[in-house]
Amino acid sequence: MVIKPRLKGSLALTAHPAGCEEFVKRQIDYVKKSDKYSGPKKVLIIGSSSGYGLASRISLAFGAGADTIGVAFEKGVEGKRVGTAGWWNTVAFTEEARKEGLIAKNFMGDAFSDEIKENVIEYIKKEFGGKIDLLIYSLASGVRTDPKTGITYRSALKSTTNEIEGPTINLEKENIENGKMEVATEEELISTVKVMGGEDWKLWIEALDKADVLTEGFKTVAYSYLGPKVTYGIYKEGTIGAAKRDLERTSNELNDYLGKKYHGEAYVSLSKALMTRASAVIPVFPLYAALLYKIMKEKGIHEGTIEQKHRLLKDMIYGDHKELDSDRRLRPDNWEMREDVQSAVESLWDKVTPENFKELTDYAGVREEFMNLNGFDFDNVDYDQDLDLDELAAKKI
Ligand code: NAD
Ligand code: NA
Q1: Phi, psi dihedrals of residue 283, rounded to the nearest 5°
Q2: What protein family does this chain belong to (predicted)?
Q3: 253 CA from centroid of ligand 1 (Å)
Q4: Model confidence over 142-200: pLDDT tens digits?
Q5: Looking at the DSSP assignment, which residues form a beta bridge with residue 143?
């Protein structure tokens, strides 16, 4: 089987296993060549298969020698379908980690369910040495079933003020379209907070605490985004911003609890804007990212997912460069938010048109990163190769 990229809007419909392996290996190489750190030994990552969760797992394993448990919602080969990028990322990570003698255990299923929490806890107790010292919470999901009530909530990427129109990039058609964001109903706002807020993070910590599998000094970090003024309407003042504020409230509750009981810590970390599966579909966001990449590359301060997460873990969480803001949030987005960066983005923002966006922004860079997420556009991968589905299906994680 030969696999070609297929896009629908800014959603990727196919993924390339050999390219996903390359994607993971390049991140591992980056960490191997970078400075190391110590502290994390037994780590649980929720949302471990792509984007920021995957990069964190790679940094922790290859930068600090940590054993890891990953939880993600991905599928391998089924019939003629080759499976998701996150599945193949996980296959590649697991092979490489085990080569180094590290434990890499994976749970593929719904992180919001009680069942997966029970399974992970049982594994920690019986086979993972009994305790974890770090939990990374990096979920991006559109739907959550509340395990207590059985009610299913769907998140809505909507405005909470007024209808917003703005330019956005369509990666399939490679053009700029007018993105529209409608105003959320009260129910949509509540649902988005249910899905993307802090409730499930707290349920994980409560279950792990109750099962007595947290070490003294246990830490937990959840990933969030704030973004600059040009995206406030869609992000900070949108339903997603409300969910992220709920996450921040949760971090403070958890920090108090964990501090008292374990001398532990809980943080929200605001990361830099990057193209991932989750962010590519947010209106306006890809165009902002394309402008930001251009400016940050010109200034020599651009970072990809792995650079962001390695810096967060090595310098801030386990190092002495903890950049906390007045709301006690970790700020690895500090370079994105620099005054000179944002004013350069703003002045370009006013000049961008559907005709000139490929020249004025780093569209090529954003597109390449997006294609790489699904294992495409690597110069050293042979995309004409005929992949054997049976052989791929036999790969276990
Ligand atoms: P992503 O889509 O690349 O990763 C999401 C992960 O969640 C995947 O591993 C997926 O398998 C997993 N997942 C989704 N639903 C699940 C479920 N029900 N059960 C188990 N696993 C499930 O997304 P990302 O961009 O890495 O986002 C992760 C976090 O980082 C989010 O909180 C996001 O807001 C935040 N963040 C993203 C950006 C950005 O620019 N992309 C910036 C800052 C912060
Ligand atoms: Na992730």
Answers
A1: -55, 145
A2: Belongs to the TER reductase family.
A3: 22
A4: 999 999 999 999 999 999 999 988 888 999 999 999 888 899 999 999 999 999 999 99
A5: 154
How far does CA 150 lie from the centroid of its chain?
A: 26
- Atom of ligand 1 minimally distant from the CA of 271: 43
Q: What is the DSSP string of 359-396?
A: HHS-HHHHHHHHHHHTT---TTS-TT----HHHHHT--
- Residues near ion ligand 2 (CB < 5 Å) are 47, 51-53, 138
The ranges assigned to domains in the chain are: 7-393
**ipTM for this prediction:** 0.97
The rounded Å distance from CA 278 to ligand 2 centre is 9
Q: Which of 115, 120, 139 to mutate to test the pocket of ligand 1 (most atoms within 8 A of CB)?
A: 139
Residue range 7-393 in CATH 3.40.50.720: yes
Q: 283 alpha carbon to ligand 1 midpoint, in Å?
A: 17
Mean pLDDT of 278-290: 88
Q: Within 13 Å, how many C-alpha atoms sit on residue 137's CB side?
A: 29
Neighbours of 334 (CB within 10 A): 15
Per the DSSP assignment, residues forming a β-bridge with 71 are 46, 107
223 token code pair:
């990933």
